[in-house]
Fold each of these.
Amino acid sequence: MKSVLLYYPFEVAENANSGSKLRPKEIHKAFQQWGDRENVEILLLSGNSAARDALFEEWKAAGKLDHIWFCYMENQTIPFWMTDPGHMPKKPFVDKKVMSFLKERNVPVGVFYRDVYWKFDELYPLKGIKKTVMKTVYRMEENFYNKYCDVIFLPSDAMGIYVDINKKMVALPPGGSKKDIVKKEKPGTVSQGLYVGGINNEDYGLFLLLDALAIANRGGAVCELTVVCREDEYAGVPEEKKRRLQELGVKVKHVSGEALNELYRETDFAFIPRYRSTYNDFAVPVKLVEYLSNELPVVATYCAAQKEIIEKDGYGIICEDNPYDMARAITEMAKDTDRYLKNIQQTFLEKHSWMARVEKVKGSLVKEEL
């Protein structure tokens, strides 16, 4: 029986409260479903370095690693040598041991390379000698992938120019999940818009969205907005900005889980109003696929990676990161929501589910058998 090795050089979070924690769990689950369908055993090698080393040796001795077809690896935003508690690995050479074992047996390996924020001085918080040391470690990690991996999976094609690894690169953005969607009847003619995310960073564009909303509603109500954010973030918002939310009649909620799902069912479309930047051009917000999984068309700014996904299959409207063009997009979306909704229903899960991501990993790493 063939097997596929998933290599996660970190402990998988029990509470997946962010995209970086959710992704490893979701793609593992999709691999398990795919393995059941294709009669392939899925082996997950994860945990701290000591646990990985012990399990690797156990599997090797038992012959469980004799028929590995390919290996898929995830990384984190810190180099994998530093993912143990306290950032000090008990078994610092286990990753080299595993990858050398696979290389000797010509097992193709692909790694999802999550982020390159450390290459942007305006984003990377460390200074002085700590910054120099950490950048050196990050470059060592890139060299490691260059030596042992065959394919580098990235959040988007646009990120590739910032990755110093001379291997095949393949876009593997976050995937969507199948939901049981039962939309609620809209009580009136005014569209219901939704923003879920951070509100304490200008880069996220919430107050750009508010300016656009004021313009769109100038001649009569077109769209009402609900904002979902963390309670502690909202508490830290300056009073003049809270007044701005109140003046525009924006509902602010602090919900998650089923309460958020209920809100999705009451909403017509959603917003990703990020300001365009070099970094935002290659980032794919997890909220994008969450919105689309919940059959919400999206009004989003023209950051390259999200623009490509939304425009390619007609999942929403793209606008510039200024209030007037966003107001234009809001007005257009309010008139034509059903067309974008139909596109999502027809193709999103087929092209962008986690299972579709697994198929892409497999297709990128192994040749089709004749």
Amino acid sequence: MLIAVKQVDVKITTNRGIRVQEKTDNHSLSGWINGFLGMIIFSGSLPATRAAVLDFDPLFLTVARASIAGILALGLVIALRGKRPSRAQVCSLTVVALGVVIGFPLLTAFALQHVTSAHSIVFLGLLPLATAIFGVIRGGERPRPAFWICSCLGSLLVMGYALSQGIAASLTGDLLMLAAIVVCGLGYAEGAWLTRVLGGWQVISWALILALPFMLTLALFTRPVSFGGIGQPAWFSLGYVSLFSMLIGFIFWYKGLAQGGIAAVGQLQLLQPFFALALAATLLHESVSIMMVFVTVGVIICVMGSRKFSR
């Protein structure tokens, strides 16, 4: 009797002194599914942040969302008895916290005081390139040259659009968004590598817990004098960015990056503007130009090429 067995390549790699076992079965379908779910959740982050900063101070919004998520993460770790990170892993978790818990939310919140969410969303097209670069530096990945061509083309489409809109008119907002992309790419790559040895929900949970004392203290000092003038949309948006953008989305996203590859699955972020622009137009009634749509279609084509040549 013959038994057909599907071959799955298993690769043992050593990265930063830690042996990591990776399955390379067509870039891991489950990794792409988890990454896609994370990307969908993140698509609502900028529109929700834009709605929240209309009533909340950007600094308070940043520390409040991290504090709420941190308290939830602490409860999650206690309830599920999460694995305690080693001293070396704490250093990596600090990088994750500085990148995605503090840096990206704070920089985007300040940026959205100067630009609309529809305009800032387009800059997310640069995030896959930043993530891939840090995936090489921090994760030891080596995509093929054709991958970089496709990824750079997607980024050039985004920058070309920004320049065509008159970048000098919102220079502060655009520079803040660019800085947010850099720190977020680093946080994504570092968290994805750490997920392979610690676990997805543990990574984001411990990163939030590490930042919790600092963020909670700032939240108390920066809280509004009165919450009476805060509208319902702002409260709803704070809830979304706290629960989904800061915690649940990262559980799926980090697991997807770890399973399918940082550079490969990271290209799904090129689809994020498409979903986020639709949310901005639907919920915030912001105008979405034909040029924005063309740019989004262009980067979707680029992600298809990047996926093909990611390994």
